[in-house]
Design brief:
The chain is mainly alpha-helical. It contains 18 helices and no strands. It starts with 10 loop residues before the first helix and ends in a 7-residue tail after the last helix.
C-alpha cells in the first residue's frame, strides 16, 4: 500500500509476496477492504502503544519523543492518508484513534514547554509536523530508490529526531523572515480578453484543485467526477484538457516539479544569504501546501514509479543539497546527510490533510503563520538550547 496505494493491491499479490496461499490469507482477511482496515488499525494501535511505553510523565519530554520516534520506525507501517477505502464505521474508528494519538503527543510537547525543557512553539503544529515526518519516512525511500529498507529506517530515526528536536541552525537566531508570497509567485499575468490566457488560467486552476484533492485524499481515492464536482464544472470540461486520470496526474506532477524548481530559483535570487535561501524554499513549500492551489505532493500511486519523475525529484534534491552545503560552509547550519534532506519534505507533507480533517483548528492560523512556525521548528527544533 505504501508503494502503490491501497486500490492497486490484491489479496493474490499480497499472498504471493508473503508466501501464503490465497485461502490461508482469506482465513485472516475476507476482502481487500478488510485487509486495508487491518493495516490502518495496526498503525494507529501500534502508535498508541508506542506513546504509552515511551511518553512517560516523569521523564524528559525530549527523550520521550526520541524514543517514540525510534519505536515508530522500528518496522514498516502504512502511511495513514487515504481512508476512503474504509467504510464509515471503520473511518470513524481510525479517526478517533488517530485523534487520541495526536492529543497525547501534543500533551507531551505542552508539558515540555510548561517545564521549560522545550521551546515555546505551537504544540499543535509541532505535533502534526512530527507525524508528517514519520508518515513521509514510510514513503520516501521509494521515491529516492533506497532499497536497503532497514538501513534507511535506522537513518530516518537519527535524521527525524535530530531535525525535529534540534533543527538545522548552528545559531540561536537567524533573523529569518520570508518576504516572498506564494500566491503572487504562483499567479502569472492574466488577460481576461485573450482566449489563450483564459484557457491557461483554467488549466492552472484545474491542476491546482486536482492536486489539492490528491493531497488530501490520495491519488487512488479521487476520480475525475470528484475533481469536476469540487471545481463546480462538468466531467466533460475536465476531459477537454486531459483525456483520462493518468494524464491529469502526470500533468499535476509536471506542474509540481516546475513549482518546486521555481521556489528554489526564486529563493536563491532574492535571498541575501544562503541560509535565507534555504529557509525561503521551505517557507514557500509550506505556504503552497496551506493554499487552495498546492503543488502535488509525492505519494503512493501508479505514477510513483516513473523513472522520469525520480530523475526530476533527485535533481531538485541535489539543488537543495548544494544550498545546504554552502550554508554549512558559511557556518550557519549543522552538517546534515542526504537522508535528512529527503525526510525534511515531511515537514509539510501533512498540511493539506490537516486542513481538511481539522478545518476549525486550521482556520485559527493563516497560511504565512503556518509556514513561519514550521520554519522556526525546522531552524531550531523544539528542544530548548542551553545558553
Amino acid at each position: 500500500m505504501n508503494e502503490r496505494g491501497a486500490s492497486f493491491i490484491s489479496l493474490n499479490s499480497v499472498a504471493m509476496a508473503i508466501g501464503l496461499s490465497r485461502n490461508t490469507l482469506y482465513y485472516y482477511f475476507k476482502s481487500r477492504a478488510d485487509l486495508v482496515y487491518g493495516c490502518h488499525l495496526l498503525a494507529v494501535e501500534s502508535m498508541a502503544a508506542d506513546i504509552a511505553s515511551t511518553c512517560l510523565v516523569d521523564q524528559c519530554p525530549a527523550q520521550c519523543l526520541h524514543r517514540f520516534i525510534e519505536l515508530s520506525l522500528k518496522g514498516e507501517r502504512i502511511a495513514i492518508s487515504d481512508l476512503t477505502q474504509l467504510d464509515e464505521t471503520q473511518r470513524v474508528t481510525i479517526r478517533s484513534l488517530k485523534k487520541a494519538n495526536e492529543d497525547r503527543l501534543q500533551r507531551v510537547i505542552e508539558r515540555g514547554i510548561t517545564q521549560g525543557l522545550l521551546r515555546n512553539t505551537n504544540p499543535i503544529i509541532a505535533c502534526q509536523m512530527l507525524l508528517g515526518l514519520l508518515n513521509w519516512s514510510q514513503l520516501s525511500n521509494r521515491w529516492f530508490n533506497n532499497t536497503e529498507t532497514e538501513l534507511y529506517q535506522h537513518m530516518s530515526v537519527s535524521s527525524i529526531s535530530d531535525l525535529f528536536l534540534s533543527g538545522i541552525s548552528l545559531h540561536s537566531n537567524l533573523n529569518f523572515s520570508c518576504s516572498i508570497d506564494y500566491h503572487s509567485l504562483n499567479t502569472g499575468e492574466f488577460n481576461a480578453f485573450d482566449s489563450s490566457s483564459i484557457n491557461e488560467e483554467r488549466r492552472r486552476q484545474l491542476l491546482g484543485k486536482a492536486s489539492l484533492l490528491f493531497n488530501q485524499r490520495g491519488i487512488d481515492a479521487v476520480s475525475l467526477d470528484d475533481i469536476a464536482d469540487h471545481i463546480g464544472t462538468s466531467k466533460g470540461a475536465v476531459y477537454y484538457y486531459y483525456k483520462d486520470k493518468p494524464s491529469l496526474v502526470r500533468a499535476c506532477y509536471e506542474q509540481a516539479f516546475k513549482q518546486y524548481d521555481l521556489f528554489i530559483e526564486t529563493a536563491i535570487s532574492r535571498a541575501e544569504t544562503n541560509s535565507d535561501a534555504l529557509l525561503s524554499i521551505g517557507h514557500l513549500n509550506c505556504q503552497a501546501q496551506a493554499s487552495d492551489f498546492p503543488p502535488l505532493i509525492l505519494q503512493p500511486g501508479e505514477a510513483v514509479f516513473s523513472d522520469n519523475y525520480r530523475v526530476q525529484i533527485n535533481q531538485l534534491k541535489n539543488k537543495i543539497q548544494n544550498i545546504r552545503e554552502r550554508c554549512f560552509s558559511d557556518g550557519d547550519v549543522r552538517d546534515i546527510d542526504s537522508s535528512g534532506i529527503e525526510l525534511s519534505a515531511g515537514t509539510n507533507f501533512w498540511i493539506s490533510r490537516w486542513i481538511k480533517d481539522h478545518p476549525s483548528q486550521a482556520k485559527s492560523f493563516g497560511h504565512t503563520e503556518i509556514a513561519d512556525i514550521i520554519c522556526d521548528i525546522h531552524s531550531y527544533g523544539i528542544k530548548k538550547r542551553s545558553t
